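DM from R.C. (forwarded with permission)

"hey, sorry to bug you on a friday — could you get me a structure for this? deadline for the figure draft is monday and I only need the backbone to look sensible"
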Amino acid sequence: MSSEPAPISSAARDALERELADLHRERGAVAATLKDSDMQVGDEADAADELQRADDLTRLDDRISEITTRLEQADVAGPPPTDVVGVGSTVAVRFADGTVETFQIGETATDADPTLVTADSPLGRALLGHHVGDTVSYDAPDGPASAVVVSLGEPRDSRD
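My reply, with the result:
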């Protein structure tokens, strides 16, 4: 992906904000155990446990920083585009068999959301930068495939 800040959907923003809140809670709990362990003199197992908690704290701080930066960049980028497929776009595509499906273009897969296509997946990469009416080609699990961009923006009725 480019180095330009990319917008995110409101659903992705909500998921990141929930994860950030969870990380802050977890960080508080881990930090509290480190403070308590400073007052105790223990054996090597206690020292190893404290080192593990310190590593956990570093991991949590790194992820908190990553999410905070991503949310700030999304604010700079503004809302997802509605004239061209980009990260955060909702796009309806018609496949070769005539079926139309609506997807959200996201950065990372979360849970098992069948309506999310990551920007680094074959279909996601093919769709990025395209407009309504464009035909895209991509490598599907069963071989080469193509799809037509039917709409951008709000989800469209799958009967279209």
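R.C.: lifesaver. The domain at 90-152 is CATH 3.10.50.30 (Chitinase A; domain 3).
me: no worries. The chain is about 40% helix and 20% strand.
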